[in-house]
């Protein structure tokens, strides 16, 4: 499938105006503006973390990341780049987390589910986590957080073409690993 | 088209993807209020003065370089005239005293005129001093060129932070 530049431009949602307004409001001392940014971007940060760290740690880390972002917001030069900026903070925080913890404990925690459906979800999530990094993040944002490809591109700062390729290649790999012939 | 469903949830839904969405949807983010500590001070935008400082430094360097260049140029222009105006020792010997005096007259008049205008007479430099000044000028020009290059690089980086977000598309 060929994707033209015009198609990509049309697919990019225009959310930057809202971000810019909110970031400026927060920098002018409006805390409620930051709460709105949190509402907009918490699913993104949650998805990025879920693709990398144990589920039990994700919620606390989301809070930590937004607290850190609040303190460091003045260092953000381009207010329109809030999404890519906080996504990068989340990725870095996930790397820091792994430096401090042991992998074996995380896997056991993740596989433990309260019921069959939950354990199935944890199992599939674990399969997604075994995929290359670029695929796993995009797949989690699409399949877990329910974002569309254009939304993922707009909020992470990746190009729409990259997200599209990552989604399709990641999905292909996931299907192979899941073995859809046997059914879920 | 099934591929469009994966991309933007349009077109014919893919049952496998829908099934995955249903199962994985249980892990989706559950909205929780953000807990910002009350003792956190309100943010105030800190102005980034770097571009202003950089521009001021560039202008200063440019002025410095221009000053050195002008001085050396003036020196270069005045030296050949003086050399041509001043007679060689051999010529001095050949010329009568009256002729020597008449040749010196216009120079003295010029100096007097300059003094009357209040401008200081130009200092005389030896050949070695001129060479040193030229070398210094070249160094300043080189430093200025380097500073300009660095500043433009910094300017590009600061103006376009989104360039730092690299394409994460990798082969599996």
Q: What does this protein look like?
A:
Chain A has 184 residues and is mainly α. Chain A has helices spanning 5-11, 16-27, 31-50, 55-72, 82-100, 103-111, 116-129, 133-144, 149-156, 160-178. In chain A, helix 3 packs across helix 8 (133-144), helix 8 crosses helix 10 and helix 9 crosses helix 10 (160-178). The relative contact order of chain A is 0.13. The model of chain A is unreliable at 1-13 (pLDDT under 50). Chain B is mainly alpha-helical. In chain B, helix 3 runs antiparallel to helix 6. In chain B, 66% of the residues lie in helices and 0% in strands. Chains A and B meet through helix 3, helix 4, helix 7, helix 8 and helix 9 of A and helix 1 and helix 2 of B.
What is the total tally of β strands of chain A?
A: 0
Please summarize the sheet with the most strands of chain B. none
Q: What overall form of chain A do the CA principal axes indicate?
A: globular
Uncertain residue ranges of chain B = 166-172
Number of helices of chain A: 10
List the helices and strands and how they pair.
The complex is a heterodimer of chains A (about 180) and B (about 170).
Chain A lengths: L4 H7 L4 H12 L3 H20 L4 H18 L9 H19 L2 H9 L4 H14 L3 H12 L4 H8 L3 H19 L6
Helix pairs in contact in A: 2-3, 3-4, 3-5, 3-8, 4-5, 8-10, 9-10
Chain B lengths: L1 H7 L6 H10 L25 H36 L3 H6 L2 H21 L9 H33 L13
């Amino acid at each position: 499938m060929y994707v033209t530049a015009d198609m990509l431009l049309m697919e990019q949602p225009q959310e930057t105006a809202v971000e810019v307004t909110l970031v400026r409001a927060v920098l002018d001392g409006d805390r409620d503006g930051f709460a709105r940014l949190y509402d907009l971007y918490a699913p993104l940060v949650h998805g990025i973390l879920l693709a990398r760290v144990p589920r039990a740690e994700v919620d606390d880390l989301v809070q930590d990341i937004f607290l850190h972002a609040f303190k460091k917001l003045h260092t953000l030069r381009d207010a329109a780049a809030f999404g890519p900026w906080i996504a990068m903070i989340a990725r870095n925080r996930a790397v820091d987390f792994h430096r401090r913890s042991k992998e074996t404990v995380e896997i056991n925690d993740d596989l433990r589910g309260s019921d069959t459906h939950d354990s199935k979800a944890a199992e599939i999530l674990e399969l997604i986590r075994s995929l290359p990094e670029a695929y796993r993040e995009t797949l989690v944002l699409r399949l877990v957080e329910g974002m569309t490809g254009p939304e993922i591109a707009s909020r992470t700062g990746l190009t729409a073409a990259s997200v599209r390729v990552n989604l399709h290649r990641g999905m292909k790999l996931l299907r192979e690993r899941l073995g859809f012939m046997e059914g879920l | 088209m099934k591929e469009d469903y994966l991309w933007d949830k349009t077109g014919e839904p893919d049952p496998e993807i829908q099934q995955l969405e249903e199962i994985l949807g249980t892990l989706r983010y559950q909205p929780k209020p953000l807990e910002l500590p009350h003792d956190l001070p309100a943010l105030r935008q800190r102005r980034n003065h770097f571009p202003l400082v950089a521009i001021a430094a560039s202008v200063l360097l440019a002025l410095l370089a221009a000053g050195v260049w002008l001085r050396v140029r003036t020196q270069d222009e005045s030296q050949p005239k003086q050399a041509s105006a001043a007679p060689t020792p051999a010529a001095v010997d050949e010329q009568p005293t009256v002729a020597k005096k008449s040749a010196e007259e216009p120079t003295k008049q010029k100096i007097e005129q300059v003094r009357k205008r209040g401008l200081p007479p130009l200092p005389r430099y030896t050949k070695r001093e001129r060479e040193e000044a030229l070398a210094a000028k070249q160094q300043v020009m080189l430093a200025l060129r380097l500073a300009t290059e660095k500043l433009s690089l910094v300017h590009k980086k600061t103006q376009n932070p989104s360039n730092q977000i690299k394409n994460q598309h990798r082969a599996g």
